[in-house]
Recover the amino acids of this structure.
């Protein structure tokens, strides 16, 4: 059987536009004489529409678009992800489904059986689970169709499974000769290798080929990396779609190709590509043409500027230098080197005149209290004020530059450096920001070496260094990784890293700064546990270890 | 049987503190010679701990505290909500449970069967559903114990049910002679009446008395209004706990009392009490002693100031007047009247000097473009800058003053008037803000009449009125109510309200301003559909009707 996998980048809610993409892919498939054309999970409305699913008109419009697509089909099969509603006396009756059409109508519908409801996933909020899994005969094959999570509960692969049911095993037991999985799987570094491993074990054990089609593009904070995969019945990866881009590929189950290995690139390369794709898609889908970044002379804003140049083009990136009395000479000159390396436009706007004026006006209200964090925050907020004014005046998309380490411990100013539409590198620890910057410089200097070499500083008071307030980043990031991503608690972390007092302080800071993260810009997700939608902690709480 | 209902206000995560509250209530019950002492859902850790549940150490500490409580028990029964973990080969094995202890140990555990996973609830994210519901014999009664949602699926009450299983019916069928429901049900106006109606039908139909114990206090944005209820087997409400406060009440199932009616107060009174309780608890649980409000001379900040005075006491509320060149004379004098009525401290800090300085500094960057929304936002952001500086310097809790109508259509400035820890009235439409203000003035003038009478204005440009940019609030709020809370779409709204062009514009504004709300302060919830955790829409999307 010849299957065309259409790896598209849908826009959430844009049912009309997505329908056209599906139609175009289907017509291309016919031209290429394939048997079946397949599209990702919820291709018709984008993944994930969240509470749009609760709107009756939204579901009606999806249903109408699905019917229209079905009516266009001839003998070639078409499978796409859609929302299907069934009248049921109990429950929602709303399903996340794969719809198979040919000969002018919907011939078969398979609902999703396993509804992920962890991390960024809330599918039980919206959908009912399929009650059964059936194969469907088409052009001599018994198709075993499943949707994303359905294929992630294989007893041969997982030590501990999350669900009792195994819909794919059920399809195999029913004689499936070809597995189809339509998917929308958000990117995290390492995930692609995992997908390949798991799917390879599954297809090899069950001796059935698999076409696994993914979407691509980004939806606010979630990046979808594409890389659709086709396995033969020996568990060998035969074809793989482009990463971070739309693609169209044909899988001929009778063809024998060399195995594709190395599905994952190195960390630095993958993360840059993911973030560029995430930033670009946010801008494209929101109508922003130009990016704005406040350039501090530090590593974070330098890396974000590089990513913005890749996403918007150097002609469409504008940076602002906003030195204060505490800014070092180097901050300006390093920024100028970066501007020259990246060939972008820039301007310098000092914050001192406004800072002085604000202090003068507020002086009576400060009751003679000495300078403290207030004045540090003021400087950061004046910068935010400038950047937002430029963004308002010239319709720039302001990119937020905070990293994951800062966001974790609250080393950032609300309404100051946290201003912006999208937090580009807020899922990279500070040490990873350095790692990526060094990688960028592997052939020639892009990020000025001095920015990489100097000690990180917020430059908000004389001779300030990050390490005055925080543990060294090497240690901090190890603590954070164990706490945030490995779900370890104080005892295990201290056992491994020592420094009990520091560890205790860091965990407390993470817990106490939930209020800042509530008001943070969405953060592009590149790890399995990012700040944002997938990590939900109470703001007011008193969990003491 | 004599049952003590302990309506407590737990702190999320404060297992030690909550354990002490449970112990104290139990000892009081012994003194009062009751048979059984009952506490709300998840009383041991507060509702809802969200992702804290995913921490093994958190669950272990809860288990340890539960064991400690059990070991303290004598012949009097103790029921409290806890998290119970069971080793299971598939799934999480974590349950939201009611634990019944006596004679020094845990004697019986009933897991929650129906896990709400809509609006603000994500329980499937954390818990497995009970596999069975059993009655437990204790002191001659067959106890039918259930947890919150378990009792909300009664076939006699609901036209369309969400769940197949009916755990309470199952308990009744198993011969339950007394129903116990431990609950944590967030406040929304009208919900209490609904609870009473539904529970009355249930107890009357099933001919079994019910003790329904709720928690009180607020957890960030969610307010729990207490009002625990006891019904006799004829469906008659016999006892009710205090509203918005901790309480302890004894229900003697053999006693016959007069029916309690009028469980819900009038809208204005309920909402004020709810918001005061919400603000007070946020401050108490976060350690804030003083509130700060930017007083514009408009109705929103006036009402928030009144609520803050009720929550913090007038000695602990400080307001700032920050007039601009566009502020009317009346704004100042009306604010002064309010300050005098409420006997609070205040100061006046003009924004003009800083506004001028910022415009001067940014002038070259504005490329001669004429004044627009940028300058309006600048003024709002300078006010935010001032307020945050005072909050930082004096440790004030800054209260955000935006209403639901503004938040809906994005008529608010990010990092400007949206600054603050908690949005106090962001779940009240503008027309409701007026309604509540009028109610406050029913006996004497608290909110200066002029504030109520004048046309609402942001005063950010000459002669600006809200109605220049927005439809009249009477119409706007009707559209918003239908769209946000009744889930109606364009056709139905227009059919009812006409004004197609306006309706279309309003819905578009609501959809497009998700990015602002993502970065908004948590909003105290008093309706069934508030902005925040319970309403989840994609930021980047293109749903077109």
């Amino acid at each position: 059987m010849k299957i065309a996998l259409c790896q598209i980048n849908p826009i959430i809610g844009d049912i009309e536009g997505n329908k056209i993409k599906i139609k175009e892919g289907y017509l291309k498939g016919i031209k290429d004489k394939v048997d079946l054309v397949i599209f990702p999970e919820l291709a018709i409305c984008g993944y994930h529409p969240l509470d749009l699913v609760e709107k009756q008109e939204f579901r009606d419009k999806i249903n109408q678009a699905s019917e229209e697509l079905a009516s266009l089909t001839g003998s070639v099969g078409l499978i796409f992800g859609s929302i299907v509603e069934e009248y049921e006396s109990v429950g929602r009756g709303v399903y996340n489904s794969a719809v198979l059409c040919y000969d002018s109508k919907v011939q078969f519908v398979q609902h999703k059986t396993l509804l992920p409801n962890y991390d960024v996933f809330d599918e039980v909020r919206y959908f009912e689970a399929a009650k059964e899994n059936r194969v469907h005969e088409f052009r001599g094959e018994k198709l075993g169709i499943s949707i994303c999570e359905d294929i992630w509960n294989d007893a041969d692969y997982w030590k501990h499974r999350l669900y009792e049911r195994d819909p794919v095993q059920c399809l195999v037991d029913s004689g499936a000769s070809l597995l189809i999985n339509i998917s929308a799987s958000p990117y995290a570094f390492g995930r692609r290798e995992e997908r390949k491993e798991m799917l390879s074990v599954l297809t090899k054990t069950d001796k059935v080929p698999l076409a696994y089609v993914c979407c691509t593009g980004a939806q606010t904070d979630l990046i979808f990396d594409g890389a659709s995969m086709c396995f033969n019945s020996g568990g060998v990866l035969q074809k793989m779609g482009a990463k971070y881009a739309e693609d169209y590929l044909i899988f001929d189950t009778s063809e024998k190709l060399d195995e594709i290995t190395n599905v994952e690139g190195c960390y630095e390369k993958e993360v840059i590509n993911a973030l560029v794709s995430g930033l670009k898609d946010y801008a494209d889908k929101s109508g922003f043409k130009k990016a704005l970044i406040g350039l501090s002379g530090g590593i974070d804003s330098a890396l974000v500027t590089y990513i913005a140049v890749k996403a918007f083009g150097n002609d469409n990136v504008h940076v602002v230098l906003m030195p204060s009395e505490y800014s070092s000479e180097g901050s300006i000159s390093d920024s100028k080197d970066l501007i020259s390396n990246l060939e972008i436009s820039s301007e310098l706007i000092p914050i001192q005149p406004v800072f002085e004026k604000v202090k003068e006006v507020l002086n009576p209200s400060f009751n003679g209290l000495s300078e403290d964090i207030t004045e540090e925050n003021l400087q950061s907020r004046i910068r935010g004020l400038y950047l937002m004014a430029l963004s308002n005046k010239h319709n720039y998309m302001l990119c937020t530059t905070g990293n994951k380490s800062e966001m974790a411990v609250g080393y950032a100013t609300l309404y100051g450096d946290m201003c912006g539409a999208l937090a580009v590198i807020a899922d990279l620890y500070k040490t990873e920001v350095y790692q990526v910057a060094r990688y960028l410089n592997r052939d020639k200097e892009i990020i000025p070496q001095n920015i990489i070499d100097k000690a990180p500083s917020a430059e908000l008071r004389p001779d300030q260094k990050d390490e005055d307030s925080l543990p060294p980043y090497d240690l901090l990031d190890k603590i954070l990784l164990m706490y945030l991503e490995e779900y370890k608690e104080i005892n295990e972390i201290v056992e491994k890293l020592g420094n009990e007092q520091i560890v205790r302080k860091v965990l407390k800071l993470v817990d106490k700064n939930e209020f800042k993260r509530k008001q943070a810009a969405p953060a592009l997700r590149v790890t399995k546990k990012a700040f944002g939608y997938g990590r939900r902690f109470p703001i007011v709480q008193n969990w003491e270890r």
In short: DSSP finds 17 helices and 19 strands in chain A. Residues 2-264 of chain A form a domain with the Nitrilase/N-carbamoyl-D-aminoacid amidohydrolase fold (CATH 3.60.110.10). Chain A has a mean pLDDT of 96.
